[in-house]
Design brief:
Helices cover 18% and strands 26% of the residues. It is built from 6 helices and 21 strands. Strands 13-12-11-8-7-6-3-21 form an 8-stranded antiparallel sheet, covered by helices on one side. A 5-stranded antiparallel sheet has the order 1-2-18-19-20. A two-stranded antiparallel ribbon has the order 4-5. A hairpin with a 5-residue loop joins strand 11 and strand 12. The chain starts with a helix and ends in a 12-residue tail after the last strand.
Length: 369
């Protein structure tokens, strides 16, 4: 009953914004850094062309969540009782994670996948045993603890591509990245109506094309290296690089998803493997800075389908660094440079309600005398 009320409130508060706002593609980027002391750090950015109004959300154990059926409404899909407590960021006021970590250290995120996503056809008879594409991350984080469990468990749940009213009556076309505490990574995609789960040895994920194509593209950049190149010698003449940085000369610097994939791959792989998990956390913030989209630099004309015929521009609404060793979930919002840290070790995992916390607070300024 409470979720039905939430649904009505969300529709009322968000629909006016979405009626005039473009459903712009997001340019999210994600990766995993593995510490020398056995932990790992997951980093990602969230870009979108409309205000997602994201908040830090926590869902406790043994809490009933309502599935969304093919009519796009809560309660008409498959309901489930959460096995694990989860913390993360939601969006559009929904009780759904767009990114998060559970009590077992499994991390994951939703990334936009508008060109390639194609969900199974779910009949009316199957609707009550299905969940919506927007719920996959929430379902996984609240039910599974490892990548191997995800591989088995997702094959027994139907995922529908129902249009959502709060999403401007569009399909939440997405794919999903997951990393467990054993350091294993997978990408979950729905292609041509079929579930496709791909092991992800490089841990990086962005948007289109599918992860298989992104992995094949890596070989085109085999000339890149974190190691500086020696001077070029031609006919006895030496030509040195004008500065340091020659090893990664040619690294894509634009915001296209294949370019961001390659950039995230080389930057994350360049971090010294001797770094502890805590040091990897610091490194993750620096890497994420390479994907922060300044307002207006990705502006979409009305003719661009990503803009839903309305145009608009993207910004990095928030960035996340999740540490599965000290079990912290750290968030930086667009509105400020504060880093908000949620400690799962202090979470009431047996609470009775979903908790929401606004993080878009004023910037903290510390005067220096």
């Amino acid at each position: 009953m409470k979720q039905k009320i939430i649904k009505k409130m969300v529709a009322a508060s968000v629909s006016a914004t979405l009626a005039f706002a473009p459903m712009v593609s997001n340019a999210c980027t994600s990766f995993l850094l593995k510490g020398s002391d056995g932990g790992s750090v997951y980093g990602r950015t969230m870009e979108f062309g409309i205000p997602l109004q994201s908040q830090l959300m926590t869902i406790p154990r043994a809490y009933e969540l309502k599935g969304v059926g093919i009519d796009g409404n809560y309660g008409t899909g498959q309901s489930w009782i959460t096995k694990y407590a989860v913390a993360g960021m939601n969006g559009l006021g929904l009780p759904e994670f767009f990114d998060g970590i559970n009590e077992k250290g499994l991390t994951g995120g939703i990334l936009n996948f508008p060109i390639s996503a194609s969900f199974p056809v779910v009949t009316q008879a199957e609707s009550s045993s299905s969940i919506n594409a927007s719920q996959v991350l929430t379902y996984v984080l609240s039910n599974f603890s490892t990548v191997e469990e995800i591989k088995v468990g997702l094959r027994s749940i139907k995922v529908n591509g129902a249009r959502l009213a709060v999403y401007n009556n569009q399909v939440p076309a997405a794919h999903y990245t997951f990393h467990d505490s054993n350091g294993k990574s997978i990408v979950v995609e729905y292609l041509n109506g079929q579930l496709v789960i791909t092991d992800n040895p490089v841990t990086v994920m962005t948007n289109d094309p599918p992860i298989g194509d992104q992995l094949k593209n890596i070989g085109n950049y085999s000339n890149l290296s974190k190691v500086e190149k020696p001077p070029l010698v031609i006919n006895g003449a030496t030509f040195a690089a004008p500065s340091s940085g020659s090893g990664l000369h040619g690294l894509p610097g634009d915001f296209l998803s294949p370019s961001r994939f390659i950039r995230a791959l080389f930057l994350s792989d360049s971090v010294p493997k001797t770094f502890t998990t805590a040091q990897m956390g610091d490194a993750a913030w620096h890497i994420l800075g390479s994907f922060d989209i300044p307002p207006g630099s990705v502006t979409l004309p009305a003719s661009n389908p990503y803009g839903g015929g309305l145009g608009g521009y993207e910004v990095t609404e928030w960035s996340v660094v999740a540490n599965n060793k000290d079990m912290t979930y750290n968030v930086k919002m667009y509105e400020n440079n504060n880093i908000y840290t949620f400690d799962l070790k202090k979470m009431d995992m047996n609470a009775k309600e979903i908790r929401y916390t606004k993080l878009n607070q004023p910037k903290i300024m510390i005067p220096v005398n």
